[in-house]
Amino acid sequence: MLKPKPHILILYTGGTIGCFEDPSTRSLLPVEFAALHHFIPELNLIDATLEVRSINQPKDSSDMQPEDWRWIVKQIEQDYERVQGFVVLHGTDTMAYTASAVSFMIENLKKPVVFTGSQLPIGKIRTDGKENLITAIEIVAAYIQDEPVVPEVTIYFEHKLYRANRTFKYSAEHFNAYQSPNYPPLAEVGVHIDYHNSFISKLNTGPTAFYYELQNDIAIFPLFPGFSQRLAEHIFSLPTYAIILHTYGFGNGPILPWFFDLLAKANSDGVILLNITQCPQGAVQMGKYITSVELEKAGVISGLDMTLEAAIAKLMYLGGRYPKDTKRIKQALQQALRGELSLIKA
Question: Which of 75, 225, 292, 332 is the least buried, fewest Cβ under 10 Å from its Cβ?
Fold first, then answer.
């Protein structure tokens, strides 16, 4: 008896992969997926049933908002039992934000969700979009004994598959636009797809659940030498539920008594303070240097080796799921809910 073809749902949101150049303005404009399919006839040769669903108005990823994240999750929930997995076509600029958010919004995911896109539009001769899309489909279709090889939310780009919430865009110029410096690739692609099974999340046993409430009253305070007290006081006066401190090195900041007073007051007022390093590689290690000891005393929580994109998405998810439960949110921030951080402190 022939094994049925895998059924894969492609969710098209827009982005460079589906853009064409306006001949009058030379700017890139998103188009419907039907035009995209025209430029990739190889899709007809794939041994899978491909179903495509487009967002109402394909958009540049710079325009993606939390309601678009909800749309993606809703499509996944609606067809979760019916298909083998999902490919999400997305613009590159905010793909890491969207993919990180989706990873948190789906609990106990048991099917592959692969985000991909391109640096060059599909209509360009040298586009990277063809290989990215075809390989993403192949990864989603990869099952062994009725179990998916990669049952998590990932980003596939330029021959590498990354855990989505470990990834950030580092280049606007190169085809290998993404990096995951604190976690190895889940797969590398050459003639064959080499899956690194020891780094892939094991199949979750609990019931799959979908969450849509997000709390986006979050501020980011990037530290820089010479930031003023007036600037800091303004940021800390905003009606935020959480503030991300984007700090130096191992999570360090300047020794400024007035700044520590601001942090301590915010903490006592119930504002969550999360420490994320500005360094792409490495982790926050509060207390390693004297410059971070006072941050810890003021109630700042270590974000360990989370990316900024994952930290934002995680805070939005936790704030929506546990509104006003500051204690529970603080505990969850230091737990690896979806493999987004390393638990070992140096």
Answer: 225
Nearest-angstrom CA–CA distance, 237 and 215: 18
Catalytic residue among 16, 116, 154, 307: 16
Range of the domain at 259: 218-333
DSSP-assigned states of every residue in 181-218: TTS--SEEESSSEEE-GGGSPPPP-SPPEE-------E
Q: What share of the chain is helix, strand, coil (3-state, %, to 5)?
A: 30, 25, 45
Query: Which residue among 210, 228, 263 closes a domain?
Result: 210
pLDDT at 319: 98
pLDDT of residue 173: 80
Q: Which pLDDT score is estimated for 174? A: 77
CA angle in degrees (0–180, nearest 5) for 171-201-175? 20
- Same domain, yes or no, for 190 and 279? no
Q: Let me know whether 159 and 80 are in one domain.
A: yes
What's the structural domain count of the chain?
A: 2
pLDDT value of position 284: 95
Residues in Cβ contact with 183 at an 8 Å cutoff, skipping those fewer than 6 apart: 162, 163, 166, 199, 339, 342
Mind giving me the DSSP string for 212-256?
------EEEEE--TT--HHHHHHHHHS--SEEEEEEBTTTB----
Given 176, 210, 244, the domain boundary residue is 210
pTM recorded for the entire structure: 0.93
Give the CATH number, domain containing residue 162: 3.40.50.1170
Report yes or no on 340 lying in a domain.
no
Give me the average pLDDT of each 10-residue run along the chain (346 residues). Answer: 82 82 70 67 84 89 95 98 96 96 98 90 73 93 94 95 96 84 96 96 92 98 97 96 97 95 97 97 90 92 97 98 96 96 69
CA distance 214 to 137: 29
